[in-house]
Amino acid sequence: MPNETPVKLFSTLAVRKAFDDVLLAAFKDRTGIEVDGVYDPTTQLLLRVRNGERPDVMIAVTSSFGELRELGVLEVNQRVAVARTGVGLAVPPGAEPPDISTVEAFKATLLNARSVAYSRTGASGIYFAGLIRELGIFDEVNARATLIDKGFIAHAVLDGRADIAIQQLSELRFVPEAQIVGPFPDEVQHYSEFSAVLGVDAGDAARQFVDFLTTHTARDAYEQTGLEAL
């Protein structure tokens, strides 16, 4: 018998394409259970929980859950790792792909861009801001950067605000019209791992959903949408 109350999901944007394209429908077909998703950067999800919202399941950057341990509202010690993704770069459709094959070429590409778009609050944007500081090009890049609070950054290369978009590879894929050049060079690549945790009051439906996130169906969906299954 179908579950009458949908599972309340808080999830990072990074896995949304896998969920929208495959997993939510596949889970409902298998179990009859619906899942209502709220998608935000991990920093915003943490804020929602701190402000009193209570998901049945939360999927976020694995290392972030420790910040919520003292609240006692999530089973943070029983994390289930589901996937990871690296950071990449996208340009407008039809544009000549810039050279990002080495760190020096990558730096030159960023410095030569009219504007680089990245997120203020997402894991990729926070990492990128630190990276360009380490590379010594923070001021030059940020002087003409397009900073976006949250969402899918590649939209900025479609509407002309920027000619380069920086975001996790799985999130860049959410804007199929944009041209993904590739991941960052290995020497400066950064992977974000995502895990699922249950709310302390979550029921059997939520537990079934977390179990489903490590099935072959789920792993295939991650791989098809720019994620690496764990």
Structure commentary:
It comes from Actinomadura fulvescens. It holds the Pfam family SBP_bac_11. This is Substrate-binding domain-containing protein. A 6-stranded mixed sheet has the order 2-1-3-10-4-11. The chain has 9 helices and 11 strands. The protein is globular and about 55 Å long. The chain has helices at 16-31, 42-50, 103-112, 123-134, 138-142, 155-158, 169-172, 204-212, 216-224, and strands at residues 7-11, 35-39, 57-61, 80-85, 87-91, 116-119, 146-148, 164-168, 179-183, 192-198, 228-229. Strand 1 (7-11), helix 1 and strand 2 (35-39) form a beta-alpha-beta unit. The mean pLDDT is 95. With 230 residues, it is α/β, with parallel strands linked by helices.
Helix/strand/pairing category: alpha/beta
Which architecture of the largest domain does the CATH hierarchy give at level 2? Answer: 3-Layer(aba) Sandwich
Low-confidence runs: none
Numbering strands along the chain, what is their spatial order in the largest sheet? 2-1-3-10-4-11
Q: Write down the overall geometry.
A: globular
* CATH class descriptor name of the largest domain: Alpha Beta
Q: Tell how many strands the DSSP assignment holds.
A: 11
Helix residue percentage: 25-40%
Quaternary organisation: single chain
Radius of gyration: 18 Å
Order of helices and strands: EHEHEEEHEHHEHEHEEHHE
Number of domains: 2
Strand residue percentage? 15-25%
Find the CATH superfamily of the largest domain: Periplasmic binding protein-like II
User: What profile does the largest beta sheet have?
Assistant: 6 strands, mixed
Q: Indicate the CATH topology of the largest domain.
A: D-Maltodextrin-Binding Protein, domain 2
Number of helices: 9
Distance between the termini: 31 Å
| Rounded average pLDDT | 95
